[in-house]
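User:
Care to share a sequence and C-alpha cells?

Assistant:
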Amino acid sequence: MLLLAAFGAVIVGGVVLISGRDDPDESAVAETGFFVEPLDVAPWESAPPNASRPPELGGAQRDERDQLAEWARSVTENTDIPERAVYAYVRAEATLRAEQPSCRLSWATLAGIGREESHHGQFGGATLAADGTVSPPIIGPPLDGSEGVKEIRDTDGGELDGDTTYDRAVGPMQFLPTTWARWGERASGDGAAADPQNVDDAALSAARYLCASGTDLGTGRGWWQAVLTYNESVSYGKDVFSGADAYARAS
C-alpha cells in the first residue's frame, strides 16, 4: 500500500492514501457536522470499540429490509459516510462474518480505511452511483520515482489506471494494480470482473485482504497486525483507529 504526503507518495504496501493531497475532512465537517477526533492510541494495545450491527442482510421480509434501510440512513445522518458506502461496508462485514467468523472484522474498520483512502469514494468531488460505481474514477498520481515517490513501472498495461508507463493506485480503497490482481473480488457474484472503482468490490476485497492473515481483529494485537499489513504506517493506523472509533460510537 502507498502513503501520499504533500503531493507525493511513499510506498509502504499495496494501496495509496490520496486524501493527503487536500483536506476532504474540512468540507465534510462543514456539510455533516461530523468530526473525527484524532486519538493518540498505543499500537497493539487495543482495537476500536464494537460498532452496532445492522439487521441481517438479504432478508426476504419487507420489515427486515426496511429495518436495514432505516439503520443505514441513521448511520449516514450521524456520520460523514454516504449511505451507498454504508451498505458496501456492512455487506463486506457480513460476508467475512459468514466465511471467516474468527476474523471479527467490523464495518467500522472498513469505514475508517475508506475515510483515509478516498473519503468513502468522494475524493475530488467523486460520487457513488446506485450500483456502487465511483464517478469519475478515482486514480492516484503516477508512481514515477519523482521526489518522495517510489517508482513502480506499469504492471497492467494501463488496464486499471490508464497509464502504460507507471502504475497508479485506483478506486475508493486505492489498490495498486498488482494488489488488485491478487485480491480483487466481485461482491455481487454476477460473474462480471471485479471492479476497483466499485465500492462494493473494493470493500469486499479490502475485507478479505485484512482477514487473510488469520488474525482476530477484535483484539488489539490482531487489529493492528491486520491494519499495518494493509498499510505499514503507524500514523495511518492511528488515523484508521480514530475513524473506526468515531463511526462505532456514532452508530
